[in-house]
Amino acid sequence: MDLAGFDISGARAAIDKCVETVTIARAAGVKVIFFQNGWDAGYVEAGGPGSPNWHKSNALKTMRRKPELAGKLLAKGGWDYELVDALTPQPGDIRVPKPRYSGFFNSQFDSILRARGIRNLVFCGIATNVCVESTLRDGFHLEYFGIVLEDATHQAGPDFVQKAALYNIETFFGWVSSVADFRTAFAQIPPVSPQEG
Questions:
Q1: What angle, 0 to 180 degrees and rounded to 10, lies between the N-to-C axes of helices 179-186 and 11-27?
Q2: Over the Cα atoms of the chain, what is R_g?
Q3: What is the DSSP string of 108-177?
Q4: Please, where in the chain does CATH 3.40.50.850 lie?
Q5: Percent of the chain with pLDDT over 90
Q6: Torsion angle defined by CA atoms of residues 8, 76, 18 and 165, in that order, rounded to the nearest 10 degrees
Q7: Cα-flanking dihedrals φ and ψ of residue 37, to 5°?
Q8: Going by C-beta distance under 8 Å and a sequence separation of 6 or more, which residues neighbour residue 135?
Q9: How many CB atoms lie within 10 A of CB 60?
Q10: What pLDDT, in 10s, does the model give residues 170-189?
């Protein structure tokens, strides 16, 4: 996102809170799912000029504006397709590749959730107003209950964008909470061994 001109200086704090959230979830036996946003090496999955994604994706626009970056942003297997080191999936975690902002679009996410009887989704990550909100909204329309942990997210854009995204989520599509509240909710549940999770 920084190569596309976004200030990501606040992302480190959100990543640290995501690590805390994932640790709490695993200890409570809650399934942890990671999304990876990106496309095939030829960018066919990204869509061409006939796709709104071609016009609005900041990665695609940046590569067109800076030809030296062509083929280097959000390509599966590339540096920015990978998860940050602090959030390395563990045995039992699930990775879901996604070609658009929403984790539900053209992915196995809905099937993964339904097969496990999961109806409640807790979101953390980057960017609140793009991928997090898009996935939570689509989940709302598919009858999932979505909660975003505001201190474990970071926006793409100025601070007011974060406030607007959280307002939209709280008012129309789901719930807003914090990592501390998430921890408290699971405090009374005995830890689950890795074999049980």
A1: 10
A2: 17
A3: SHHHHHHHTT--EEEEEEE-IIIIIHHHHHHHHHTT-EEEEEEEEEE-SSSHHHHHHHHHHIIIII-EEE
A4: 1-38+90-197
A5: 78
A6: 60
A7: -95, 125
A8: 35, 101, 102, 103, 104, 109, 123
A9: 21
A10: 999 999 999 999 999 998 77
Q: What is the pLDDT of residue 122?
A: 99
8 A C-beta contact, residue 186 and residue 28: yes
Q: Three-state SS for 54?
A: helix
At residue 194, the pLDDT reads: 58
**What are the distances in angstroms from CA 132 to CA 102, 161, 168, 184?**
8, 13, 12, 23
State which fold the 1-38+90-197 domain adopts.
Rossmann fold (3.40.50)
Q: What's the chain's average pLDDT? A: 92
**Across 41-134, where does the E strand assignment appear?**
94-98, 120-126
Partner residues linked to 94 by β-bridges: 33
Asked whether 102 and 135 are in contact (CB, 8 A), the reply is: yes
Does residue 112 contact residue 94 with C-beta atoms inside 8 Å? yes
Segment 152-173 shows an average pLDDT of 96
